[in-house]
Design goal:
The chain has about 375 residues and is α/β, with parallel strands linked by helices. The protein has 11 helices and 13 strands. The strands form 2 sheets. The chain has an 8-stranded mixed β-sheet, sandwiched between helices. The chain has a 5-stranded antiparallel β-sheet with strand order 1-5-4-3-2, with helices on one face.
């Protein structure tokens, strides 16, 4: 769904969407650099010995895989293969390709030509080094709030990078929502806290309180695409991801923490400002999240839900702390948020969650 097709919303939140490779195959695909004739079995053996690139058997493509159109790939010895890119595994630095007969093969990124490595990095940010990722995303942006233009995969957003950012230590990120889709305002409110704690703030537009189930379903589809594109939007540590929001935006953060559509994110915590769970008794969010509940002392609606929500969150072994402030249904003072982010990182689970490889985008 194009971002522009989403209708404007009212203030009421509707219930969200619940949403080996055999040698004969190699001979058919790999071609000699000079004569472009099919390579024989002996030539195949010499090719892989010289490249130290072994094609490993893979299970059939998962439903989440979205292969590109077939293209010609070249290895470091100048040999070529025609196959469609499927995915990149950051853990093993391996590239999965789909051959013409439908089988998948896996080979080291280092076995590909420079042009092919650049293509992978363009389409899969996880293939880049931290230095490359930081330079791409943050050049001229440190200590500033800047806009990220919308694409077919995610809406317009605003980002803040702390001035102390270092490539060798990717920072935590907090994804921010509010009830009217004003991502810039959210980042402005978190700027001081993110600078003080070394976090990245990413405020999303478009995600707002919905006017109908259909509109909310559209936002759910947009979130699926956005969630899979976050590394294309910003530089951050993918094992230290948080969400937060005000009012309906906080409720949205809780809802999206429960989604299990790949890539499944290891959400470490949620900053809930004037938010609530909407009456849910059972949650499927990650266990042991840090949850900060920040309500104005005169916010009757949000405060009336705290007791119920704390019980539900404790069933997921979440660590919960209330940060009250003098006020109504509104954003807390900036100083409060400095304290909140510091607490969040101190109590968040420290073990790194295993992430599924990110599916490829269609061309």
């Amino acid at each position: 769904m194009a971002v522009g097709m989403l209708r404007s919303a009212s203030a009421r939140m509707e219930p969200p969407e619940q949403g080996c490779v055999q040698s004969c195959a190699i001979r058919r695909i790999f071609l000699t650099a000079k004569g472009r004739q099919p390579i024989t079995g002996g030539m195949t053996t010499r090719l892989f010995t010289g490249l130290a690139a072994v094609l490993l058997p893979l299970a059939p493509a998962q439903e989440a895989d979205v292969p590109h159109q077939p293209r010609v790939w070249t290895n470091t010895a100048g040999k070529t293969i025609t196959a469609a890119f499927v995915r990149f595994s950051a853990a093993g630095r391996k590239v999965s390709l789909k051959l013409e007969k439908g089988r998948q093969v896996e080979l080291p990124l280092a076995s590909l030509s420079g042009n092919d490595v650049d293509w992978i990095k363009e389409h899969v940010p996880e293939a880049m080094s931290n230095q490359e990722r930081m330079q791409r995303h943050t050049e001229g942006r440190l200590g500033k709030i800047t806009k990220i233009s919308a694409t077919d995969f995610y809406p317009e957003a605003f980002v803040y990078y702390p001035s102390t950012l270092k490539a060798e230590s990717p920072p935590p990120v907090i994804i921010l929502f509010n009830s009217v889709g004003n991502g810039q305002h959210m980042v402005q409110k978190f700027r001081k806290a993110c600078e003080a704690n070394g976090w990245v703030a990413l405020g999303l537009t478009t995600f707002k309180n919905s006017e109908s189930r259909e509109h909310e379903a559209g936002l759910g589809k947009l979130w699926t695409s956005t969630n899979g594109s976050l590394e294309r939007m910003a530089f951050f540590d993918a094992d230290r991801m948080y969400m937060g929001g005000i009012s309906g935006g906080a409720s949205r953060a809780f809802t999206y923490s429960e989604r299990r559509i790949p890539p499944v994110r290891p959400w470490k915590g949620i900053v809930s400002m004037g938010g609530w769970l909407g009456g849910k008794d059972r949650l499927t969010c990650p266990t042991r999240m840090a949850v900060a509940i920040i309500n104005g002392d005169k916010d009757g609606g949000a405060n009336s839900a705290v007791s119920h929500d704390v019980k539900a969150l404790k069933r997921r072994q979440c660590t919960i702390k209330e940060f009250p402030f003098p006020g109504k249904h509104e954003m807390p003072p900036d100083e409060n948020l400095v304290e909140v982010l510091k607490w969040m990182e101190e109590v968040s689970p420290q073990t790194s969650a295993q992430r599924l490889p990110s599916p490829a985008e269609k061309d």
